[in-house]
Recover the amino acids of this structure.
């Protein structure tokens, strides 16, 4: 909204025209969300502690996690607030891409809020039933996918782009809706599964959001997209402001969530952040790049699928426990070691994903 104010002020002082630049607004979005997190974080933690809105620990998890009982949860509400506020401040809310990413993120946050409410108020570690959660996620994801499909004006908006191969572009037609649906729902649940250790999910989310911000900016810039040989998508560059808000809010939350965590994000944070990554990948047409850069989330999800499938088919478990980070905990790795090594893997995968911009 501030972009409209600065446009108005430009007629009186030309210096305000600098706020038209997407790069500046993205930086300001990062700083704004970071500032909000730093300022409101301590107050939120104190409030959650006083209200005894604390984390419930599943009794089938690692015994070391029992020490986390009583740690405040639902800190993801701070992430959601700072993302939305910062994007509304510095983004162009008349841009349809901004509107759809904000809507999906907010609605998945509401689903996570209901899930957390059941865990905290009803003292049920499992929260919202899997079927109800999946139905709610499906409704939001399908709604967003159908909207984007029907509002598309260029062929590239519904095409599948293959990283590293500029000549491999596939027209999806109505299958675009199916792809977008699975990317949004899958990404949301993948981040949620990864959010099991202090800071494990939030920093990879920050790094992936930063990587997607680069893709959004370049895809929305006619000169850069032409130079790099990537499809030009008018208006999608504005999503970089949203990604910047994710980066700032995530770093601000990590300040309080780093080991040993003062607060957990809860499903309100994990589900909304995962959905945000998914919808951003969809609008920037980088679903496969998200698969690469978010490799830690993918591996964590696959470990659960493999574990459940193996146990049902053979009665044997592949891992000591799933998701994968619990397997390494039970092997004797200290929690900080698991976290940092997963972060390092994410850095490598981000670089691989960004390399696809030039290696084509």
């Amino acid at each position: 909204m501030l972009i409209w104010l600065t446009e108005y002020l430009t007629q009186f002082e030309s210096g305000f025209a600098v706020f038209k630049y997407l790069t500046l607004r993205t930086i300001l979005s990062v700083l704004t969300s970071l500032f909000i997190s730093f300022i409101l974080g301590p107050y939120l933690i104190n409030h959650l502690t006083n209200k005894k809105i604390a984390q419930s620990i599943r009794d089938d998890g690692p015994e070391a996690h029992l020490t986390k009982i009583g740690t405040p949860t639902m800190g993801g509400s701070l992430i959601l607030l700072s993302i939305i506020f910062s994007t509304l401040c510095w983004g162009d809310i008349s841009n349809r891409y901004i509107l759809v990413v904000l809507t999906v993120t907010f609605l998945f946050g509401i689903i996570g809020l209901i899930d957390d409410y059941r865990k905290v108020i009803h003292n049920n570690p499992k929260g919202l039933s899997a079927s109800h959660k999946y139905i709610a996620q499906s409704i939001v994801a399908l709604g967003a996918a159908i909207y984007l499909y029907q509002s598309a004006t260029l062929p590239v908006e519904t095409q599948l782009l293959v990283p590293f191969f500029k000549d491999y572009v596939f027209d999806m037609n109505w299958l675009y809706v199916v792809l977008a649906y699975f990317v949004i729902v899958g990404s949301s649940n993948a981040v949620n599964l990864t959010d099991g250790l202090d800071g494990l999910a939030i920093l990879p989310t920050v790094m992936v959001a930063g990587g997607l911000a680069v893709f959004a900016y370049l895809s929305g810039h006619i000169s850069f997209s032409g130079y790099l040989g990537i499809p030009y998508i008018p208006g999608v560059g504005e999503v970089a402001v949203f990604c910047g808000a994710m980066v700032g809010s995530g770093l601000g939350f990590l300040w309080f969530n780093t080991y040993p965590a003062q607060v957990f994000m809860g499903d309100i944070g994990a589900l909304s952040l995962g959905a945000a990554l998914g919808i951003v990948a969809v609008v920037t047409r980088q679903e496969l790049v998200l698969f690469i850069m978010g490799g830690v989330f993918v591996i964590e999800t696959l470990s659960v699928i493999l574990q459940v499938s193996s146990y049902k088919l053979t009665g044997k478990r592949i891992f000591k426990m799933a998701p994968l980070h619990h397997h390494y905990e039970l092997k004797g790795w200290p929690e900080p070691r698991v976290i940092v090594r997963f972060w390092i893997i994410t850095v490598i995968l981000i670089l691989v994903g960004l390399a696809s911009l030039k290696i084509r």
